[in-house]
Design goal:
The protein is of the alpha/beta class and 293 residues long. It has one domain: 4-Layer Sandwich (Metallo-beta-lactamase, Chain A), CATH 3.60.15. It is built from seven helices and 15 strands. The chain has a six-stranded mixed beta sheet, with helices on one face. A six-stranded mixed beta sheet has the order 10-11-12-13-14-15. The chain has a three-stranded antiparallel beta sheet with strand order 5-4-7. The termini are far apart. The mean pLDDT is 95.
């Protein structure tokens, strides 16, 4: 059996995001996966309450934070990866194809000072790359579809899948963002579901489907194969793509997509200060779909 990392989950009700504190029991080396920086959109107010709670939990356990890892450039929350790096000296990692996302959104936000070479991240992980978390092996799977840069971190008997697949009673992620691809998403999910059946699946969000009133984020490969409402055994790629495209056509952009992406392509860093010493986020007018029909 693969090793089992210690895992503590932190659910953010404002964005339905789950942040994971993952550590090696033997060495106390730890990673924070998909850290959240609090953002109140009405006043454009930033806070670090959520990520500070994660860092406190790590300190209470005597853990050394070595990595701040994002599964992709999120469109629904601001990443706290750069905050973790500044506070702990951890390295920030993401999938190598983040450069494609940077290029697309650098243009959308007209932020010429933002490079599109991934250099703001400390590590750009390739498919099937391995790195160490203490005595634990971390394997990276490129699992595109939701975005072209999505990756899954397989750490011992656990897989952190980001937004690729949700809890079995909710299904799967949308695939209509720039670079998204429903067929690629189906194949990525099949790759995840080819892991050993006892592999624990930790998803990046839980949106509380009808009939369930408590958030949940852990399942297994076996449970996903048997019960996922979108991709249980027997669902073909064609049927999935048809369903996904029809469903995505009804979805509005996430509330925080504009502030999130211009921060997350910078590894969670804010835009540089302008001449008055203040930092500003941009709202590109009529550049994003989902406006009035």
């Amino acid at each position: 059996m693969p090793a089992s990392p210690d895992i503590q989950a932190f659910f953010d009700p404002q964005t339905a995001t789950v942040t994971y504190l993952v550590s090696d029991p033997a060495t106390k080396a730890a990673a924070i996966i998909d850290p959240v920086l609090d953002y109140e959109p009405k006043a454009a107010h930033l806070a670090s309450t959520s990520i500070d709670a994660v860092l406190k939990a790590a300190a209470d356990k005597g853990l050394k934070i070595e990595w701040a890892l994002d599964t992709h450039a999120h469109a629904d929350h601001l990443s706290a990866a750069d905050y973790v790096r500044a506070k702990t000296g951890a390295k920030v990692g993401i999938g190598a194809r983040i450069t494609e996302v940077q290029k697309a959104f650098r243009s959308l936000f007209h932020v010429e000072e933002t490079a599109s070479d991934g250099a703001v991240f400390d590590a750009l992980f390739a498919d099937d790359e391995h790195f160490a978390l203490g005595a634990l092996d971390v394997r990276v799977l490129h699992t595109p579809g939701h975005t072209p840069a999505c990756i899954t971190y397989v750490i011992g008997d656990a897989a952190f899948v980001g937004d690729t697949v949700f809890m079995p009673d909710y299904g799967t992620a949308r695939a209509d963002f720039p670079g998204g691809d429903a067929a690629a998403l189906y194949r990525s999910i099949q790759r995840i579901l080819a892991l050993p059946p006892q592999t624990r699946i930790f998803t990046g969000h839980d949106y509380l489907p009808a009939g369930r009133d408590k958030p949940a984020w852990e399942s297994t490969v076996a449970e996903q194969r048997a019960r996922n409402v979108h991709v249980h055994e027997g669902v073909t790629e064609d049927a999935f793509v048809q369903m996904r495209k029809a469903r995505d056509a009804t979805l509005a952009p996430p509330v925080l997509i504009l502030p999130s992406l211009q921060v997350n392509i910078r590894a969670g860093a804010l835009p540089p200060p302008e001449s008055d010493g203040h930092r500003y986020l941009k709202l590109p007018i009529n550049r994003l779909g989902g406006g009035p029909k």
